[in-house]
Write a structure and sequence with these properties.
The chain is of the alpha/beta class. It has two domains: 5-116 and 187-254, Alpha/Beta hydrolase fold, catalytic domain (Rossmann fold), CATH 3.40.50; 121-180, no CATH class. Helix content is 36%, strand content 17%. The chain is built from eleven helices and nine strands. The protein has helices at residues 31-37, 62-74, 87-98, 121-129, 138-145, 152-159, 175-180, 182-186, 215-221, 237-240, 242-254, and strands at 5-8, 17-20, 43-46, 80-85, 103-109, 162-165, 168-171, 199-204, 225-230. The protein has a seven-stranded mixed β-sheet with strand order 1-3-2-4-5-8-9, with helices on both faces. Strand 4, helix 3 (87-98) and strand 5 form a beta-alpha-beta unit. Helix 2 packs across helix 3 and helix 5 crosses helix 6 (152-159). The longest helix is centred in the first third of the chain and has 13 residues, at 62-74. The two termini are 35 Å apart.
């Protein structure tokens, strides 16, 4: 599937950096981060399938998402550094495991290659329940989501995917597919593959998405993995501590390749 993408910066002598966002996100969410990282390399931020301006599909599993990322990299020279957050982190891991020749260095932001017991269905239902016919401005959407999503910061994030246009309001998310595929999104495929390349698991110090119990699985799949925790940051570590996040990403990408 050909993904919509925002390309920041010209090509350089370094591999481009591909950024894969998390569930309910978009390439635009990463604009400020991409702009700063593009000082030294081209950055390609994609809208994942069923998100933003990318095509819709009834399938939203990680094999399919990894294939989408591989197609994007193939069109950008064939090899890239890859940064994935949350759902995008799982897609990036699957890409590295299935097509390792496409990935020079891998950064996984606050996610492990495991199945999680929680779900995001409450937010899907809240968005599906919003009366789009009554939305003529973003503040209407905020008011309509308030009962189902009481956290103002989370509402603001979700509303970035609400397009309010002359023809009416619409979600730039395929909510029906995301609901149907939620078990796939929360899970992770069984695999015996491994990715030998340099890999950084970058976590928020106050997040519990990557736990000590996950490390045996991480080490099995990514034997060269290293770990860095960002202080004073949760799951949205790139938004909570952007300077520290950019510093860690840049240091890892700029490190000499292993002999």
């Amino acid at each position: 599937m050909r993904l919509a993408a925002i390309v920041t910066g010209p090509p350089t002598d370094r591999p481009p950096l591909l950024i894969a966002h998390g569930l309910f996100g978009s390439a635009k969410n990463w604009g400020a981060i991409a702009k700063r990282l593009a000082l030294h390399r081209q950055v390609i931020s994609v809208d994942m399938r069923n998100h933003g301006d990318s095509p819709r599909s009834a399938e939203h599993g990680y094999a399919a998402m990894a294939g989408d990322l591989a197609e994007t990299i193939a069109g950008a020279g064939g090899r890239a550094d890859v940064l994935g957050h949350s759902m995008g982190g799982k897609a990036a891991m699957m890409l590295a495991l299935t097509e390792p020749e496409r990935v020079r260095r891998l950064i996984v932001a606050d996610m492990a290659p495991v199945a999680y017991g929680h779900s995001q269905m409450e937010y899907v239902r809240a968005m599906q329940a919003l009366d789009l016919a009554a939305v003529t401005r973003r503040s209407d959407g905020d008011a309509g989501l308030a009962a189902g999503v009481p956290q103002s910061a989370l509402r603001a994030f979700l509303l970035q995917s609400l397009a309010v246009e002359e023809a009416g309001a619409r979600w730039k998310l395929n909510l029906d597919t995301l609901a149907a595929e939620m078990p796939e999104i929360m899970g992770f495929p069984e695999t015996r593959a491994s990715f030998p390349g340099p890999t950084l698991f970058l976590t928020g110090a106050s997040s519990d998405y990557v736990r000590p119990a996950h490390w045996p699985r991480i080490r099995a799949l990514f034997p060269a993995a290293t770990h860095e925790a960002i202080p004073d940051a949760g799951h949205w570590l790139h938004a909570d501590a952007p300077n520290a996040f950019i510093g860690a990403v840049s240091t890892f990408l700029d490190a000499p390749d292993p002999a």
